Amino acid sequence: MHPTRKAAVTATALLTAAAITVVTGCESGSATGESVAASPDGSSRPGCPTALAEAKRAVKAAEDVNAPWAGPTSGPRAVPDRTIVYIAQTLTNPGVAGVAKGVQEAADVIGWRVRTINGQGTPAGIKAAFDEALALGPDGIVIGGFDPASVTEQVDQADAAGIPLIGWHAVAAPGPSESPKLFSNITTRVEEVAKISADWIIARSNGRAGVVLFTDASIPFAKRKSDLIKTELATCSDVKLLSYENIPIPQANIRTVEKVSSLASRFGDRWTHSAAINDLYFDHAGPALRAAGREGAGAPFNIGAGDGDPSAFQRINSKEFQAATVPEPLSEQGWQIIDEFNRAFAGKPASGYVAPVHITTVANSGGALSWDSEGYREAYRKIWAK
User: Fold this and answer.
1) Which of the two ends of the chain, N or C, has the fewest CB atoms closer than 10 A to its terminal CB?
2) What is the dihedral of CA 175, 177, 181, 187, to 10 degrees?
3) Rounded to whole angstroms, how far apart are CA atoms 304 and 177?
4) Are 107 and 113 spatial neighbours (Cβ–Cβ below 8 Å)?
5) Are strands 324-325 and 360-361 parallel, antiparallel or unpaired?
């Protein structure tokens, strides 16, 4: 059994706080100097009792570690002798790299060949990687974490050649896509990930927080996720968005440290929570927060709204500047990609399966370094007769 299933399910961890001084803010980090020492009615109670109660309920459900396999249990047997190319937006993105590993593992089981090509996180690199993939003449191509609209010519070439495309975080919605033409797109529902991430902040802060939000606006999927987080945070009037920071993922290692240092100096104790569209930002935020005198187990309490790579679990387990993540089941999704290709090769429709959202904290991780449902490997092996 996965270690996370051995952990006891705990109730939502709540921060019972006295009045927290926060500021109102807007995008790109601008803020007024207005402080809010209490709720609008003059009390120390949060100004969103209904939103707070709903957030607590949602978070408690998402923290449940009992997650038996709810994906497909039937489908076509393994189609033999296939070659897949996985085009990675950048292998420095732990989510993209984690799915690539899952694809390779599943391909080894089903008996296929996989080639991974790194797009290096740049438009030119991704186009070159896609051109290389097409030149290899594969049976299927994975669009790993980048926008197909940036390579429309290559997508059209693959379609004309009869090469099915499967995306991972390629478009906003899971499942098949007609424009761009994808046999399926593998992702959790961005609306659910964004909502539960914001709900965690509302619940964790007891409805009173000052929040910094990190995004990569160059990726439509990521930009939409962060916009949805903003919308959900706004349902609680005593949760204030201090700053909305656009840092492209390939530049996170360069820009995050400087930006976090500036934010810590600027907002001080008013900065109580953070959310980011990818856990990677908190890997780089840690040194800057430590230099600013913050403690790893203290504020700002940070949640990654997606991916849940092993380094994020390590930070959570050791209480080092990350308190939670909404992990994609990366290995499981890699296996699903191979299964979806097998359905495409067999002339069957996509499975339609979408993994449910989950929240990992130190209280329910069980010391694990990943999150996946139980039984997916056994289920896919049975489907493929492997």
Assistant:
1) N
2) -40
3) 27
4) yes
5) antiparallel
Residue 363 near residue 6 (C-beta atoms within 8 A): no
**Which helix (H) or strand (E) covers residue 324, if one does?**
strand 324-325
Structure tokens at 21: 């001084």
Query: ω before 180 within 30° of 0 (cis)?
Result: yes
**Partners of 86 in the beta sheet?**
116, 142
- Nearest Cα neighbor of 93 from 353, 306, 372, 291 is 306
Model pTM score: 0.77
> 90-136, pLDDT tens digit by residue?
998 888 999 999 999 999 999 999 999 999 999 999 999 999 999 99
Distance CA 366, CA 386 (A): 30
What are the start-end ranges of the E strands in 122-208? 140-144, 165-168, 175-177, 182-186
Cβ atoms within 10 Å, residue 346? 12
**Which residue, among 155, 151, 127, has the nearest Cα to 141 in the 3D structure?**
155
What letter would DSSP give residue 156? H
pLDDT tens digit sequence for 223-238? 989 999 999 999 999 9
Give me the helices (H) in 213-291, please: 220-233, 252-267, 280-291
Which structure tokens are listed for 128? 């070159």
Classify residue 88 as exposed, middle or buried by CB count within 10 Å of its CB (0-12, 13-18, 19+).
buried
Long-range (24+ apart) CB contacts under 8 A made by 40-46 are 40/237, 44/18, 44/19, 46/206, 46/207, 46/208, 46/236, 46/238
Alpha-carbon separation of residue 60 from 133, 135, 236 (angstroms) = 44, 49, 18
Conformational region of residue 276, where left means phi above 0, alpha means psi within -120 to 50, and beta covers everything else: beta
In 3D space, the residue among 350, 366, 35, 22 whose CA is nearest the CA of residue 209 turns out to be: 22
* 356 close to 69: Cβ distance less than 8 angstroms: no
Q: How many CB atoms lie within 10 A of CB 316?
A: 28
Residue type, 139: D
Tokens 């994808």 map to which residue?
182
* Residue 221 structure tokens: 């999927």
3-class state of residue 301 by DSSP: strand
Q: How does pLDDT run across 324-372, given as a tens digit for each residue?
A: 999 999 999 999 999 999 999 999 999 999 999 999 999 999 999 988 8
Nearest alpha-carbon partner for 328 in 286, 366, 365, 360 = 360
Residues making up the chain, counted from first to last: 386
